[in-house]
Amino acid sequence: MTLDPVTKNLMPYPNFLIIGAPKAGTTGLYKTLRQHPQIFLSQVKEPNFFMQPAHYNKINNREDYLALFANVKPQYLAVGEASVQYLGDEEAAWNIHQAIPDVRLIAVLRQPAERIYSHFLMYLRLKRETITDFATIVDVMTGVKNIPAEHSSLYIKESLYAANLRRYLALFPQEQFHISLYADWKKSPDQVVSDICSFLNVNPDLKLPILRDNKSGLPIFPRLFHLLNTPNAVKNLFRKFFPLRLGKCIIDTASQLMLVKAPPLDPELRLRLTQFFRDDILELQDLLDRDLSFWLS
């Protein structure tokens, strides 16, 4: 609970945020933590409220944002939301600090080249990426080619973890951060969840079912997949006949059945991108006081 800077009334701001990174297991983490009886996470994932106005997603005013937490009961000791682009956004850290200076911040970080490839595949699935050849994306990012590429700067910005964390650390003390690695989430998810629960001062000993975001790969039927995964009149009509959660479950299941495994990341392209991010990785290694040599190999 935090004093609203405008009205000075007690307002139910969240006391923790999952701030990133995209395509690093945060959807699975969000789904898993929501099962904890002492944790409340907003039903709306990625409200993006604290980002630059041009990037507002679902929530663009304070009243609607606070309404996400209006029904929080006393049993919930940790109240949060997950907007995974906060970490890479230039203004989010300042905006968060202005509203909730004592908030706890959680991030999961993934090897940059692997994260970018996964992000690229997601945009292909959603028909938001016009360049379908990942090698061309890498050429643009590394300066080999100078052609229009809408998302290349976003791929870079959201993978410069050390630079992004420096912006937050200039405003928030280090003890308000909990940083996990995607490799840990894949290998030991129970331990990652337990550590986060301890960080949030909720019971870390509960055995929560680990839920993951299974939506990966590329669709067999791109147009139908796109229809099911973007707002449109067909989905609005569908919702009239099915409850929200059931309808979402049906759509997610149908979407998953359409996906086939994507080709693996080309080792040469991985190496090129890893070299591009090398300095930032080494700086992150110092920030986290953790060996990241496996990211560089």
Give a short summary of the structure:
Helices cover 44% and strands 11% of the residues. It has 297 residues and is of the alpha/beta class. The protein has one domain (2-217, 261-296): Rossmann fold (3-Layer(aba) Sandwich), CATH 3.40.50.
Describe the structure in your own words.
The protein has 297 residues and is an alpha/beta fold. It has one domain: Rossmann fold (3-Layer(aba) Sandwich). It has 15 helices and nine strands. The strands form three sheets. The protein has a five-stranded parallel β-sheet with strand order 4-5-3-6-7. The protein has a two-stranded antiparallel sheet with strand order 1-2. α2 links the parallel β4 and β5. α7 crosses α14. The longest helix has 14 residues. It is globular, with a radius of gyration of 19 Å.
Question: Which key phrases capture this entry?
Answer:
Rossmann fold; two-stranded antiparallel ribbon; 297 residues; alpha/beta; 44% helix; 11% strand; five-stranded parallel β-sheet; 15 helices; 9 strands; disordered N terminus
CATH architecture: 3-Layer(aba) Sandwich
Low-confidence stretches: 1-10
Q: Sheet with the most strands? A: 5 strands, parallel
Tell me the span between the first and last alpha carbons.
Answer: 44 Å
The number of domains is 1
Approximately what portion of the residues adopt beta-strand conformation? 5-15%
Helix content: 40-55%
Number of DSSP helical runs: 15
Helices and strands, in N-to-C order? Answer: EEEHEHEHEHHHHEHHEHHHEHHH
Chain-wise SSE layout:
Elements: E1 2-3, E2 10-11, E3 16-20, H1 26-33, E4 39-41, H2 62-67, E5 78-82, H3 92-99, E6 104-109, H4 112-125, H5 134-141, H6 152-157, H7 161-169, E7 177-181, H8 182-187, H9 189-199, E8 218-219, H10 222-228, H11 233-241, H12 244-257, E9 259-260, H13 267-276, H14 278-288, H15 293-296
Parallel strand pairs: 3-5, 3-6, 4-5, 6-7
Antiparallel strand pairs: 1-2, 8-9
Helix pairs in contact: 7-14
